[in-house]
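task queued by scheduler; priority normal; single chain, no ligands, no partner chains; default sampling; output format set to structure tokens
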Amino acid sequence: MRCFAALTIAATLALQPVTAAAGSAWGSSQYGDPPAWCTKFSDMWTATVVTNDPFVGTNPEQDTFYGFHPNPGYDDWYGYFYGDFRGTPGDSSGWVRLLHETYPNHYQWNFATNGWAVHGHVKQYIAYYNWTFGGQCGLGAYGNNAAPPYMADQYGYPVVDIYVDSVPPFNPQPYVTAVTPSSVTFTWDPVADRGDGAGPDYFVSGLDHYLSWLTVGDRPERVQLASTAGPRTVSLVGIQPHETACLHVQAFDRVQNSTAEQSSCGAPLAPPPMPTWSAPETAVAANPTGMGLVGLDTWFWLAPAPAAITAAETYQGIDYSVTATPVAAGWDFGDGSSARFNDGSGFGWAYPQPSSVVHTYEAHSQVGYGARAAIRYDVSWTALVGGRSFGPYPLGSVELPAHPLVYPVEQAQPELIAT
């Protein structure tokens, strides 16, 4: 009867939460070993499990529960857990009774059995107590002065450090880095892994690799499929104007959690239509002002000097900026004479600088000659795709007229001046 009372007290103590001792001889050092922990019968001391399974199906203890003694024929198995195994960081379970086994039956236990999910880092102790032999750790046997029933498992791993990361990395965001009328180029920025758990039990396995590939149009084929340790630049050259290319990326951590497939698409750029340009706000100017004189050089220029003109337009869903840059000018002086300039000297220079555009009229005209200039612009276009600007690419050239000048020319009359 005294033996039964001692065993009853031991069993009651086994079910009470207790404070763990500081430090640990087994497994991770951040948690202490449970009180009265005894490793006398263990043939394998510790194991480490790194997984993405919150229910830890790879727990090496899950299939190690055997009854040892036929008389009286059962063992009671206990577990002691530290960490984020029930959702609260830093949990300390106290000894939890897991199983009652009757020899020679074999049982299985796992976290999922009790609906527990592991987060981040946990530490697990598994022990058994046989009611016939008591403690068997040098403190008594056969129920006499037995230690609490926390003897290490004889099969498998009595202490298991479990690290769980069941959260995928942050999503990579692919984007277009370059686009031309015949190619599209993509890349993405590096991302970090996201760990599991919280507080001191937080664990992140770390980013492992990216899987990326291209698709074209609605075709299912994966083009340029590759696994890489970091982001890469992927180009599709020779793509047709009506086709769309897409880059697809997944990020994997070291326990093979993966993000959902992330994608970005782009199409080769088609040149936009040439805008309808208005005549620039520049006009023909001359010196002498007012009227010219037959046989006297007249200097011409454009005032103000021609400047670039920009037009914005949207074409096939893409925003374009089209710029006309003045590069040269041609002149018609209204008397049948003309001049062609292949560079900016055709704009002339305002008086009092000597202009590069000079003409001498040989006959007078009271009505005035119509002096005209046509400014040649080289046109280029730039496309805005995904917040990035691509170009410029040439679009051709246009000629736009400056405002003409009606320029009367008089015959100079000689006068005799007496001295």
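post-processing summary
- The chain has three domains: 2-164, 174-266, 283-410.
- Residues 283-410 form one domain.
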